[in-house]
Amino acid sequence: MRGMESQFVIKISYETLKIIFLISMPMLLAGLIVGIIVSIFQVITQIQEMTLTFVPKLIAVFITMILFGPWILRKLTDFTTDLISRIPVFIR
Asked: Does residue 75 contact residue 22 with C-beta atoms inside 8 Å?
């Protein structure tokens, strides 16, 4: 019986990590793309201002959160609903 319990824990952990990776990817990619663009701009213009790197990334991540918020909420809701509906299977 211990093998089945560990398989359930591993499966739930895998699904949790997969959903975390999936829902964080839009914000991470937005920050990465804006960071690269700002870095290229700084290299070209030789402006080395720290706020120039931070503020655009912050704005890009915030806009991405607004745009992808409903999708993220739907993914989290589906995951949580699926997890709660499988509680009887986990208890056995």
From this structure: yes
User: What is the spatial distance between Cα 62 and Cα 72, in angstroms, rounded to a whole number?
Assistant: 14
pTM recorded for the entire structure: 0.78
Closest-CA residue to 27 (of 75, 63, 80): 63
For 22-63, how does the pLDDT look when each residue is reduced to its tens digit (9 = 90+)?
A: 999 999 999 999 999 999 998 898 888 877 888 999 999 999
Residue 64: CB atoms within 10 A of its CB come to 19
Q: How far apart are CA 5 and CA 73, in angstroms?
A: 29
End-to-end CA, the chain: 10
User: How far is Cα 47 from Cα 25, in angstroms, rounded to an integer?
Assistant: 29
